[in-house]
């Protein structure tokens, strides 16, 4: 459905997007993750035909953004990270305007407006002025706007930015509904756990390069070979022998106040199993042995070397 | 309202006529015309409200009304058009508009027509006041219609320049200053350049009977000179005498303004979206 081929964007000598190649299948929800300035918005702007690539191309449903940009626009619904609305229009007039912008007939528009407003839970606001809607409602109205012409591909750049937790949950539910409808969605977000909930695959961008791509589990595996093992010991037993055991295995150990040891381990699952077996053979006072599962955000922070997630400078 | 099948035009008209500013500007425009008409009658009747108004006096009223309308158009048009595209950019609605299936021309034409239609509304709303000149004679319907025709041509050209700057420049305020600059160039600087060209031809010893194309060129782009030739046809002969070119000022004006309009709209249409092909 979407083929990104060697996409590059240069600003002078600065590479905002560096030779990005990626294929996204029909019906996939693909999330772009990256720190500010990683190149997410630049990539989205090129896909949405708003920015000319320095080199490379993106083919959407068989149409090239470089050579057939007008055809591409008919196939995409684009929601930018920052956007305004026409405050003096009513919600249904706002959608009507975008319907006519896609050459829809009035009959088609009249049929589609309730469908998209129902989808984003704004049907009771259809005669309200856009100006009177809350931020979250405007965000959902904008999403409804992208759906007016029933596009095959949705490009959503930070759709949850600036929303309160409730509005985020509402937006996430809408996105899950769109996923069920089989839309191909490209989305970027700083709220990584939310992205993990709705995305089939994610791509990690760092300094304009795609450093990892795949499903959430494989990304975590690709990017986090270092693990922390949590060892729970019997209380009121001398832990020194156990600490010594792990040190002999050339592992660093941190003693925790709650009777736990945190052991930093690098290796495969088989090597991890071997370590456990040896610890048990040594008759150590272990009652719990588990891996500290890093969440997506931890992985992201590690691979982007601590780039701040919340600042918006892109 | 399908807005002549132009989505931007339909939307813009709706937004414009829901704004209080549009109605207050209309009120201001009509009040200005009314003040000039009432003031004129009070002055010519020595503030008694009765007396004669001769046709030649009535021509003065027509002149005043024409120039007041021209001045209002020259000042309102840049204000209305210079923010059409840059305003969308500043409100962060432009990117969304540009990713729709509308063509570049549809967007530019919609923006242009919405501004023009509002100014045409002002002109039409003023008709009951300005048509008072027909009561006292001295003004032919031809002169009246010609003055309106050229006011509309001037407006369309200035609106196109406003749309061009609005497309090229990111900030509305800079776009507005640039459009007012063009308006000043056409009304003030062109007259100055005509004077300079005339003086130069005198100093350089150009014979009085020789053609002075530069003088004709600069005079022909000046809307004030044009209106003066429409209201007082004898001025056409004066321009001919000065330039020694037997070619009507209005024809040159029409050509120059048509070229400015076409070039402005063509550049705006080409530049509103980035060119994706390399």
Strand content of chain B: under 5%
Fold-level CATH name of the largest domain in chain A: Rossmann fold
Strand segment tally of chain B: 0
Number of strands of chain A: 14
CATH architecture annotation of the largest domain in chain A = 3-Layer(aba) Sandwich
Instruction: Name the overall outline of chain A.
Output: elongated
GO cellular component, one term (chain B): plasma membrane
GO molecular function (chain B): ABC-type transporter activity
Protein name (chain B): ABC transporter permease
Keywords (chain B): Membrane, Transmembrane, Transmembrane helix
Q: Would you write up a description of this structure?
A:
The complex is a heterodimer of chains A (314) and B (278). By secondary structure, chain A is of the alpha/beta class. Chain A is 36% helix and 27% strand. Chain A has two domains: 221 residues, 3-Layer(aba) Sandwich (Rossmann fold); 68 residues, ACT-like. Chain A, domain 2 (Alpha-Beta Plaits, 2-Layer Sandwich). Chain A has eleven helices and 14 strands. The C terminus of chain A is likely disordered. Chain B has one domain. Chain B contains 13 helices and no strands. In chain B, helix 3 runs antiparallel to helix 6, helix 4 runs parallel beside helix 8 and helix 6 packs across helix 13. The chains are: A alpha/beta (314), B mainly alpha (278). At the A-B interface, helix 2 and helix 3 of A face helix 1 and helix 5 of B. Chain B: One of its GO terms (molecular function) is ABC-type transporter activity. Chain B: One of its GO terms (cellular component) is plasma membrane. Chain B: Keywords: Membrane, Transmembrane, Transmembrane helix. Chain B: This is ABC transporter permease.
